[in-house]
Each structure stands twice: as structure tokens, then as C-alpha cells.
């Protein structure tokens, strides 16, 4: 059969095992199908198969009130072989709120969830009278009562940085923790706040991206420190959306940054099971051939079906001839025709040489006309 696009070929030949998954924004990159959730929803997989999953929670909000510290990054979970099937609830956590300049109302980030995987929201940063909180990664320490950075969640993030003693002017505070490293510590009376902890690099989206960086600290002189790679906010800045970055610390003039929202990404091979494509280069006649891509084991006993309308009358025909090519030798595929009366006739070609077209002569002379006069697929 000849088709002018892959979409037409795939819609004509329907597999009872092709991966049909929905949810999020779907892209195809480098032989992988990728579902990206930047908001909560449902991921639905019509077969049971292993998928890669990245779950990043919302980053923590930063403190303010003269010397707020950086918020911790959202917790990060990567699972290279998560067993997925059916409907899976996806929750994308929002970032925590940063404190307004003259108050202490910063909050933790919110959890992100994929099935049984829960990434913990980033811990809030500290301020003059408010302690940093534990989270996916912990918030940083500040100069006053809250020297020590909060802890991160094991396997998801790191602790916030610590101020090594009571600070005098400019009262610099520490950075929040990130998925790849702790927030920067701050020495007594340091002129510069602590940087945010570094995030972690993954290519699950189809390109290398760093997620879950910690937010930077701040000080009373508004000296700016850098947020951690992976969306951590610089001093007084928000964490980047859909990275899980922590907010950057504020002070008496500048509000603390909000944490960046989280993200959930699912990826699996486009050839996980059985799919069809139109092929414009490997052909013996016409413009296109039909190419089937079959995953090992998962495609066993699965079928690509081409329904024809109107039906085809093969009465008195004794032979069907077609060309076939495979990357494997042997009898690994069965081809059939089904009459409207319910009878299916099969042939199992033997591939004698890999990656070479061979012609198959299929003798159907023994099939009665009643079983081949109205071929439906």
C-alpha cells in the first residue's frame, strides 16, 4: 500500500498494541515520545510498559525582613523504568510564596506527584524571626536566630546553606539548597550573600536542561548573589517557572522571590510496541512502502490491521505477490487476509537475508472463493 504521509499510513494500519498515551504536551524527539506536564492532569497509557519519569516539585519561597535567605529547590525524582498503565494522576506543584519586604510570610513549595512518586516541595527560606523549613531541598539560614540551613529530603535534594555565626551589618544570609548541591554558606559579617545550590541536569525533554536550583540569599545592602543553576532565583528574584527553582532572598526594601513551579515529564521509546509508518526511501515501486516498527517482546502476537472499503473480491485469484524486507532473518511475521464471512488465511514468510527486499509468492489457490470474495482486512 502507498501513502503520502506517516499520519495516513498509521491511521490506515491500526495496531492493537501501539502505544496510545495521552496527557500533557506531546512531542517526538530522537525516537522518543515525550509528555510534558506544566499543569496538573492525567497521563493515560493503553498498554503496560516501562517509562522514564522526571518529577520536580515547586520551589520554596524566599524570606525577606532585612536579610531573607534563599528558598530551597523543589524535590526532584528521576525514575528510569516506572511501570505505567491506565490512568495516572499527575500533580504539578506550584512554587511557594516569597515574603513581602516588611513581613515574614514566606511558604514552602507544593508537592508534585506522578502515580506513586511524590516530589516534596522546596523548603521556605528564613528571615529575621522565621526559621528555614525542611523540603525537597531546604531553605537557607539567616544571620539572626536561624543560622543553620534546613535539611533536604534524601534522594530528592540538599540542605540550605548555613550562616556561621551572628552577623552584623550587612547581615548576609545563605542560599537555599538545590537538587545537585547545598546552598552556599556565609561567613560571619560577609559582604556577599550565599549563592543557591546547583540543580541537576537531565535530557528527558529531548535536550539537556537543569532543574531544581536553590534560591540565593540576600543582605541589608541589596548586594545580589546568584541563584543555583536550574531556575534558582537571584537575590530578590523569583525562581524560574517549571524548573522547581527556589526564590531569591529579599530584605527590608525588596520582597523575597517566589519559588518556581514544578514540572512532570514522561518519556518512552516510539517503538515500544508495534507501530506503522510510511517509508519513502526503502521501496521497490511507487512512492512509499509501509514500515512496521516492533518492540522486542512487547510486540509479540500483536497485529497491524488495514480495513478496506469497499471490500476486495479475490474470487478465482490463485496468487498474491508482495515484496518484504526485515532487519531480522527467519519467520518472525505473519500476514493474513480476512473475508467478511470470518475466515482468515495466513502466510508466514521466511526472511532469508536481513535488510534486503525479497519477493513472496503466496499461493491462495486452495482457498475457496467463498472465503476470499469479500476481503475486509
Describe the structure in your own words.
- The structure is a single chain.
- This protein has one helix spanning 6-12; strands at 13-15, 21-22, 25-29, 32-37, 41-56, 76-91, 112-114, 117-119, 200-202, 209-211, 263-269, 274-279, 289-294, 304-306, 319-324, 335-338, 344-347, 358-363.
- By secondary structure, it is mainly β.
- The strands form six sheets. Strands 2, 3, 4, 5, 6, 7, 8 and 11 form an eight-stranded antiparallel sheet that branches. Strands 1-14 form a two-stranded antiparallel sheet.
- The model has no long low-confidence stretch (mean pLDDT 89).
Topology:
Layout: H1 6-12, E1 13-15, E2 21-22, E3 25-29, E4 32-37, E5 41-56, E6 76-91, E7 112-114, E8 117-119, E9 200-202, E10 209-211, E11 263-269, E12 274-279, E13 289-294, E14 304-306, E15 319-324, E16 335-338, E17 344-347, E18 358-363
Antiparallel strand pairs: 1-14, 2-5, 3-4, 4-11, 5-6, 5-11, 6-7, 7-8, 9-10, 12-13, 15-18, 16-17
Please supply descriptive tags for the structure shown above.
377 residues; mainly beta; eight-stranded antiparallel β-sheet; two-stranded antiparallel sheet; rod-shaped; 1 helix
Enumerate the spans where pLDDT stays under 50 for 5 or more consecutive residues: none
Strand content: 25-35%
Order of helices and strands: HEEEEEEEEEEEEEEEEEE
Query: Structural class, please?
Result: mainly beta
Question: Could you tell me how far the N terminus lies from the C terminus, measured between alpha carbons in angstroms?
Answer: 13 Å
* Mean pLDDT score: 89
Number of strands: 18
Q: Percent range for helical residues?
A: under 10%
Q: Enumerate how many helices there are, as a single number.
A: 1
Largest sheet: 8 strands, antiparallel
Shape: rod-shaped
The radius of gyration is: 29 Å
Amino acid at each position: 500500500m502507498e501513502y503520502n504521509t506517516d499520519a495516513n499510513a498509521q491511521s490506515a494500519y491500526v495496531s492493537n498494541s501501539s502505544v496510545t498515551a495521552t496527557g500533557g504536551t506531546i512531542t517526538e524527539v530522537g525516537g522518543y515520545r515525550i509528555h510534558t506536564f506544566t499543569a496538573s492532569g492525567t497521563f493515560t497509557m493503553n498498554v503496560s510498559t516501562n517509562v522514564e519519569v522526571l518529577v520536580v516539585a515547586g520551589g520554596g519561597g524566599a524570606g525577606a525582613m532585612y536579610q531573607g535567605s534563599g528558598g530551597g529547590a523543589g524535590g526532584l525524582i528521576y525514575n528510569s523504568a516506572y511501570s505505567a498503565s491506565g490512568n495516572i494522576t499527575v500533580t504539578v506543584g506550584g512554587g511557594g510564596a516569597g515574603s513581602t519586604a516588611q513581613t515574614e510570610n514566606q511558604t514552602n513549595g507544593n508537592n508534585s506527584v506522578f502515580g506513586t512518586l511524590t516530589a516534596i516541595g522546596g523548603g521556605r527560606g528564613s528571615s529575621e524571626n522565621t526559621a528555614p523549613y525542611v523540603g525537597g531541598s531546604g531553605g537557607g539560614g539567616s544571620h539572626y536566630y536561624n543560622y543553620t540551613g534546613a535539611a533536604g529530603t534524601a534522594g530528592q535534594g540538599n540542605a540550605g546553606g548555613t550562616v556561621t555565626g551572628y552577623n552584623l551589618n550587612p547581615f548576609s544570609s545563605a542560599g537555599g539548597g538545590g537538587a545537585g548541591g547545598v546552598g552556599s554558606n556565609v561567613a560571619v559579617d560577609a559582604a556577599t550573600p550565599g549563592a543557591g545550590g546547583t540543580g541537576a541536569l537531565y535530557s528527558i525533554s529531548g535536550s539537556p536542561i537543569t532543574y531544581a536550583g536553590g534560591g540565593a540569599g540576600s543582605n541589608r545592602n541589596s548586594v545580589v548573589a546568584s541563584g543555583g543553576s536550574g531556575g534558582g532565583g537571584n537575590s530578590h528574584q523569583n525562581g524560574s517557572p517549571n524548573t522547581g527553582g527556589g526564590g531569591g532572598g529579599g530584605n527590608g526594601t525588596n520582597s523575597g522571590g517566589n519559588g518556581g513551579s514544578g514540572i512532570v515529564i514522561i518519556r518512552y521509546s516510539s517503538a515500544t510496541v508495534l507501530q506503522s509508518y510510511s517509508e519513502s526511501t526503502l521501496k521497490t515501486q511507487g512512492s512509499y512502502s509501509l514500515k512496521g516498527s516492533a518492540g522486542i517482546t512487547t510486540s509479540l502476537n500483536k497485529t497491524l490491521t488495514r480495513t478496506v472499503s469497499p471490500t476486495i473480491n479475490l474470487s478465482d485469484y490463485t496468487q498474491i505477490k508482495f515484496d518484504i524486507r526485515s532487519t531480522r532473518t527467519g519467520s518472525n511475521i505473519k500476514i493474513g487476509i480476512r473475508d467478511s464471512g470470518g475466515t482468515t488465511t495466513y502466510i508466514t514468510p521466511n526472511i532469508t537475508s536481513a535488510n534486503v527486499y525479497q519477493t513472496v509468492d503466496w499461493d491462495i489457490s486452495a482457498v475457496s472463493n467463498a472465503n476470499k470474495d469479500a476481503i475486509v482486512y
